[in-house]
Amino acid sequence: MALILAGGRGSRLMQLTESQSKPAVPFGGKFRIIDFPLSNCMNSGIRRVGVATQYKAHTLIKHIQNGWGFLRAELHEFIEIWPAQQQTDDESWYSGTADAVYQNINIIKGHRPDYILVLAGDHIYKQDYSRLITHHVKSGADVTVSCVEVPVEEAKGFGVVDIDGDGNIISFVEKPETPPTMPGRSDMSLASMGIYVFNADFLYEHLCRDQQLADSSHDFGKDIVPYLVGRCKLMAHLFSDSCVICGTQTESYWRDVGTLDAYWEANIDLTHVIPSLDLYDNNWPIWTYQVQRPAAKFVFDSPSRRGAAVDSLVSAGCVVSGGIVERSLLFTDVRVNSYATVRDSVILPECDIGRSAYINKVVMAKNCRIPEGMVIGKDAADDARRFYRSEGGVTLVTPEMLEKLAAEEEAAQRR
């Protein structure tokens, strides 16, 4: 069975996660981040899934209940939500990834799995977990860690494994200044994806052992896996061996969209003629829940007022009414009004772009109402004063920021 750890806040996404956890953040026009590991489970034939939630989980729980309730209990299939319930003697919330599994250990044992697949709930990728599990079983491993190949310089921000020629993990280091490299590849390192396959009894034993340690953070990457190095058969699995590559894709795709810049970049990549991630492949669909809305609509066609979108993704329910959308991604129920321009931007659901507004390199949170004539994305200093501007030059706009700005302007007028 699989357990998806979906309780993380994702604080580096700034105000996008003020009211919801990172796995619930919308992605790609109609999906949420959690849909990717859930879809990978379904497509891999794994139909027993627990989703451990904690931080501001209402949006995530509602999404899973609405969109992922199609499995049949009488066939022992399920996607269950496992919120933090203070199930241990100290009545604590989940204190780490391993603790999240430990607190549900009795539920897991009740399903009597032979192998347990532990997944992160906050990455964008397509992976056939059945290949990963097959590799684990055939190798005779106690634990298998799924690893992605990354350039050495990028590896400094990950947990990095060092392997021998047979794929055995011989060391595991967290965010090393000098990352170990792959055998025969001095330019590449293996970063842990936060995906593990455990033999069930072996996992129970080491979760219980770790719980007795007062100085442990009860985390798989920081505590469990490093302890196991040299003490058991610990194998690395290359993501390239189980990544689903199809359609227009040419290489393995795995993204941690944990920063505003990374989130913007991964969404905007989907607008390219040949994106790095192919979402149009019917052989490995990404499933989700979506509201039933009419088709996107584009109106007005005169030289001065034309409703058009170029190199963009426009979701159901959108109305582009005499505005121009370029290299952007519009989620459900976005309206772009006359003479407005939206460029290189990610617009989340139910936003309204006022007449003659100019929006450039923006991530716009749900339910924003952009006033007529507002300009965002031309003056970096002005954007940073009014909103949040990232190091990569992406401006985040939220309804709360707009309300505060309107109140300040009203107060200034009264003075």
From TrEMBL:
Any matching Pfam family: Hexapep_GlmU
GO BP annotations listed: glycogen biosynthetic process
Pathway: Glycan biosynthesis; glycogen biosynthesis
Catalyzed reactions per annotation: alpha-D-glucose 1-phosphate + ATP + H(+) = ADP-alpha-D-glucose + diphosphate
Family matches, as SUPFAM superfamilies: Nucleotide-diphospho-sugar transferases, Trimeric LpxA-like enzymes
Function noted in UniProt: Involved in the biosynthesis of ADP-glucose, a building block required for the elongation reactions to produce glycogen. Catalyzes the reaction between ATP and alpha-D-glucose 1-phosphate (G1P) to produce pyrophosphate and ADP-Glc.
PANTHER family in the record: GLUCOSE-1-PHOSPHATE ADENYLYLTRANSFERASE (PTHR43523:SF2), GLUCOSE-1-PHOSPHATE ADENYLYLTRANSFERASE-RELATED (PTHR43523)
Protein name: Glucose-1-phosphate adenylyltransferase
The species this protein was found in: Magnetovibrio blakemorei
Taxonomic classification: Bacteria, Pseudomonadati, Pseudomonadota, Alphaproteobacteria, Rhodospirillales
